[in-house]
Amino acid sequence: MKIIGCFMYFDEDLVLDLRLNYLSKFVDNFVIVESKFNHKGEERKLEFDLNRFVKFKDKITYIILDKNPEGIEKIKDNDSEIEKNNKFINNSNKRERFQRNQILNGLVNAEGNDWVIISDVDEIPNLENINFGKLKSKLVF
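Structure (tokenized):
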């Protein structure tokens, strides 16, 4: 049984450092997904640098997302403000889900008895008193 911690990364090095240092004694692998696009769809520079976290390099699977999802709605000049806002929000949500779903690419070696923890980088679970071997439910919120 392995514990795999998964999250998206933007540029939160301080929080990432805290997360990796705290969780490394509990987690066997970290899956980190970073996109070349922000949730607005604008290109951005990749920020993650494995050399900053070299003591965790054997535990990190780093995935780069280099495309936007399909089905992005074009916001037109003649759209009403409500239509523009709705499209903007829907497009942002599609991009976020698409990026989060890329975590699956980092789980190709996961097995049926492994635990996968998916959260935002700043949501650091307290795993001090959790005995994963005794948990009966595979979904924990």
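The beta strands are 3-9, 29-35, 60-65, 115-118. The first helix runs from residue 13 to 23.
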